[in-house]
Amino acid sequence: MASSSAFLLLAVMLFAFPGPVFGERIADIRNTRHNLSASGTGTVKATTETQVCVFCHTPHGATQGVTPLWNRQLSNQTYTPYTSSSLDANAIQGALDQPGGSSKLCLSCHDGTLAIGNVNVLDGRINQSINLSGTAPGGVMPPGAGTGTGFTRSLGSDLTNDHPISLNFTSPLAIRDGELRSVDANQRWPAGSGTVLGVRAPGYKPLLPLEPTGNGGTGQIQCATCHDPHIRETDISVGNQKFLRTNRFQEAPPAAAFSQANDIVCLACHDKNLASGAWAYSAHANPLVATQTYTASASTLREFPAALPVWKAACLNCHDTHTVQGARRLLREGTDSLAVPKAGGAPALEETCYACHTTAAQSAVTPATTVPDIRSDFQLARRMPIRTVDQASGTETHDIGGGFTDPGFVDCSGAANMCGRDFLEPRTKLGVGNLSNRHAECTDCHNPHRVVKFRSFNGNAGVIAGPPDAAGTHRHDDTAGYTHTNIASGVLRGSWGVEPIYGSASFQSLPSGYIVKRGDPGTSADTSVTAPYVTREYQVCLKCHSDYGFSDNNLYPAGNRPTLGFPGGTPANTNNLQQYTNVAKELQAPAAHKGEVTTGDSGAAPAYAASNHRSWHPVVDNTGRSGTLRGNGVDISARFRLPWSNAVGTQTMYCSDCHGSTVTSPTSGVPDGGENGKPWGPHGSNNNFILKGTWSSTTGTGEQATGACFKCHDYATYATRSDNRTGFFNADRGDLHTFHADKIGRMRCSWCHVAVPHGWKNKAFLVNLNDVGPEGGLPAGTQVRNNTTAGYTNGPYYLNAMLKIRTFRPSGQWTETSCGSAGAPGNGQSGRDWMRDSSENCQNPP
Fold this sequence. Notes:
This protein is low in regular secondary structure and 846 residues long. 12% of the residues lie in helices and 9% in strands. β7 (188-189) and β8 (197-199) form a beta hairpin. The longest helix has 13 residues, at 4-16.
């Protein structure tokens, strides 16, 4: 590990969670399922034949050119090899060859095409057939009860759902992948010894043997690299070991170097710890976090030992080397099949996660109360398009890995790209140039190998060793003095995203570019926005919700942005919105626009620049507008709910403070029932736009409990006839929210404020119908709602809007004459005359 604290914690964990003594594996084929003689212990065995070895070996008449003295014919079957965009071997050696080496021997039984009892020689007679019971018709390998669950005995000829074999394990492969242990020039790891992985040679007998190809000493992964068909595990407490040469389960917390006694076999090749202990401290591997155990039924289905803890299941929580047909990346139960257990189907990555992240009644683990129930959120009325049927392509489009280049952003085609490790996808998969590729999958936002149960992605200033926090989501509470941030939480550790680059402060301008953020932070304490890895939640969101993930010609309505209305999504024309907006453009927080200032580059027409500036919800950065500044010398911080009222103007926030499942709790959107075991994030909601509360043209008076705005803004201040002071104030009338609520009898947020409140060209998100410009498809400074009392609706930003501003005023200094028509083609009136008596009056707004 890279720090002394990490070493100390690891030592504590090893002491606190000692594994059983490494189960002794002995050569005892007679007591394994590979004993097909009449004395065999399995369901497939001979009716009379008592010889044990004859089913595979013969000293005479062996299949020519095949070792070791193989007593069977090899299948002539043509196989479909494993392939994946994240399989770097495909880029280095091309499509995997047909299975070779010892794998062909295994497949002569396990592909289900040849009768198991057919041998070359039996008692001196050639081409004999031994009578067996328990076989499938034709005497072939039976499919077995586990065929659809990842425990397939009859592998078949389609190997796309099986761990790749006949794959060259080389240093270039390890370098390109980034999470494989690198072998040396003599095909040995550790270098110079070959004690764990390598090609056998005089004096070297590695635990996991690569098979030489005769091509420059290259070693290949074959079935026999991981399996030895002759061995038996003598410690029955460790469960069915599947003839593996080392552990099927994790027996102690993983460390930087592979341990034969402690580590699951996968870690011998796949170095998920890197230099930082990333996997060791992840929420799926940390014994202090992954304490849940598998239920009896789930254990039986997976052939796990009873009450196996999640941390010991390790890689097998999510993967199986021989998984259900149709799944990708060896994901366990990773298809949309409705059968239990699954049988075939189309790829569905989320189904793997749902094995645990679901209701207590459906979960494979117990207790499920500390495992967020994500599945239920994705079944709500409004949800991300995680199901294949919700996606325009009709297939699972999500596809990480190398082999692509996005000019100016990332090159995933190089010799050390490590794009599969970081779960990167090309922009075309996000929707650039092909909107039908738009999708949402669990690993778009989360890296399950790196997530940690800490409030911050970097734990405690770069130290992820130690007791976990109460939740892996960001802190959000009403403690006095607590100030909120936008630092990415533990569940986002190691994911990838983008940081927008802004060349102009104007609301009408797109970001000038994006910086891709990727990689595991290791023990770095750096949480700055300039760090090379994800440090902010919005960076994850913006890779899809900006022109990094779709084309945008910056005109409204734009023809290149994704549309609303997919199944389960917010219906088209909700709030007169037809297309998604460019959130990166909206959320910009220009330093020169912080505070109460006058600017000329907000995107508003020049005539409306005085006392005006951009506004934004502080997702990317704070506003610099304190409670006192907002109140023109009087602190109005109490107009916000906690924690926002603690330090107005200095705090930042998350996308998931507003977007997520419906909440009724009093503290600004914290999941109902608390955070530990409850989802915090924009997975699904019963409200449009996956908001935690309602937002429409009626949001305002009467929506104290449900309105999205009132999770943070004090309802009594804005929507009722209160005496509380806000920035909308003058000395004659007092607070003008209160004044208007009293005169009209109700308030609606969208009368005066923009309908997409990420960020805006005017201060305080105020609409100005004297200045509708490119955001409404019109020239800057166009006056609308002329000589009519009807509200103005023009998506995405105007929703039943009423307000015309002639002159912007500093907060707390508004006057009657600040509002009204700017002149023709409007009626030209202002103040009370305009609001009450004119052809554009607001006496009874809709």
